[in-house]
Design brief:
Length: 288
Amino acid sequence: MIPGVPGESQVYLNGEFLRVDEAKVSVLDRGFIFGDGIYEVVPVYQGNAFRMAEHLNRLDRSLAALRIAQPFDREGWIDLIQQLLARTNLETCIVYLQVTRGVAKRDHQFPSTPVAPTVFGMISAWAPPPAAQRERGLAAISIPDERWLHCEIKSVSLLGNVLAKQQAVDAQVDEVVQFRDGYLTEGSSTNIWVVSGGKLLAPPKNNLILEGIRYGLLGELAAEAGIPFESRPISQQEVEQADELMLSSATKEVLAIVSLDGKPVGSGKPGPVFAQLRAGYDARIAAL
Ligand code: PDD
């Protein structure tokens, strides 16, 4: 048994549904050798995948960025997700999808003769953030962003993100807030939001951050709640003086960051803009 991976549900690997301990990939898989692949993390509530179309659109963009051939059309991906969900007894869970360039002799360049991409899908046990986290908020530390310059690709080359997250764990906080050249980028596996003077701010969508599926969603929720939203470079000083800070991701949904580098953010409690966005998020899930 692998903790957190339901042993009773089956994973998908290259056309087959298998038990997780039966699914094996070659040691020459370029995902294993080079981190040459992409992934998606789709949250599922009561059997309903949330923002599936947006996740699959991003999967298409990631594959195109790496010039990996699409293994499935849209219906094929939806069918795979449905088949995975049918093979688990979990109703609220995570669908993880991964595509690598496939198996080839170790050589940095792309294989000169086409190889079949490795396609993997699994269901992971997951529960939405508990009430205590929603009500109390999270703690974070600021760190320099030392990752590469293609953070817009949802690549499985996640070493920079792994090392960043470990810094949070070592500092006994929940997440890092990364800065590059004095400007906010994102968390280790989350987008970061700033509230300043009644406005919701997020860093621009460019190669320095992953455009989270919740990036678009929070923009929509802000518009619905009449909260002005601006996407622009945000200096470290603005983050330090923010009225509110938040993070978002498929697994964390939207949560307040109430302490940064040991100092309270604003009032030190989840703020009113967070409360409005959180309510909007909950309403979208309830409407699924
Ligand atoms: N991470 N930025 C990074 C670097 C991320 O890894 C993620 C998501 C996000 C938020 O994206 P979304 O709203 O689509 O989840 C931003 C996922 C959850 C993960 O790697 O597990």
